[in-house]
Amino acid sequence: MFENPSAWISQAPHWKDLLRLARWSLANPHLRLFPREIIEQPHGKFYEEHCGIIEKIASAFAPDQADFFSPRQKPYFVRMRFLDPGMNRAGIPFTDFSASIGELANLPLTPRKIVVLENEWTFLAFGGIPDSIAIFGKGFAVRALALIPWMQKAEIWYWGDLDAQGFQILNSLRSGLAQVKSFGMDFATLERHRDLWSEAPNCPAQVLGYLTPEEESVFEALRNKRIRLEQERILPMCSIPETSWN
């Protein structure tokens, strides 16, 4: 409990409320509420902001009681587009919609190809591809896509910003979906759009264990030079050769 004393000391002004909510959580082990539904003082927002430390305090009081109250988490919604209006859409009447991971997991979809795109404008502008869908990635949340069973069976392509973070996101996505291939994230694309480079924030050295050797080389070059090529700057899509991802 005291592996990080400074973190606990910083909570000194809140100890009374933290202890009250820890006792409350132990007394209500089976409730399934969102944090903002909790009416115990001080308020649900406080619980939401301090959930981790409250659970540690409760664990210290009752180390054998593993099922003390754990709040419900907000569902993660995924936005997707059918890139082929004529494909079997499992009765879905929309071509562009959002649904929770759990709802998507239950859909009987069998797309041949899935394209994950990090920028919303790129997601909207991406052209039609037979029997395929596009998914708006929204950063590191892409790792949750591995929870959708039918994604495990599809050919998956990823296109993100040509910067260090873009490769970090690719690495995260591929950690759960090993078949992911990248496109538009190579030296050729970078050099072809040199006039569109911008400065990137500093990125510490790190090992990204799910990148290919070529991807790792591009990542290191971008990190060392502190440059970036934002995905939406190289629209229209014809700026990415079709042979680089088909």
Please render the helix and strand layout as text:
Layout: H1 5-9, H2 15-27, H3 44-61, E1 77-82, E2 96-100, H4 101-105, E3 113-117, H5 120-125, E4 132-136, E5 155-159, H6 164-176, E6 181-182, H7 187-192, E7 198-199, H8 213-225, E8 227-228
Parallel strand pairs: 3-4, 3-5, 5-6
Antiparallel strand pairs: 1-2, 1-4, 7-8
Q: Could you explain the architecture of this structure?
A:
The protein is globular, with a radius of gyration of 22 Å. By secondary structure, it is α/β, with parallel strands linked by helices. The protein has eight helices and eight strands. The mean pLDDT is 83. It is 32% helix and 13% strand. The chain folds into two domains: 13-61; 77-244.
Keywords for this entry:
alpha/beta, 2 domains, 6-stranded mixed beta sheet, 8 helices, 8 strands, about 30% helix
The profile of the biggest β sheet is:
6 strands, mixed
Oligomer state of the chains in this structure: single chain
Helical residue percent band: 25-40%
Measure the end-to-end span. 52 Å
Shape: globular
Order of strands across the widest beta sheet? 2-1-4-3-5-6
Report the β-strand fraction as a percent range.
Answer: 5-15%
Compute the number of structural domains.
Answer: 2
Going by helix content, strand content and strand pairing, the class is: alpha/beta
N-to-C order of helices and strands: HHHEEHEHEEHEHEHE
Q: Say how many strands there are.
A: 8
Q: Tell me the number of helical segments per DSSP (H or I, 4 or more residues long).
A: 8
Radius of gyration, in Å, reads: 22 Å
- Uncertain segments are none
Mean pLDDT: 83
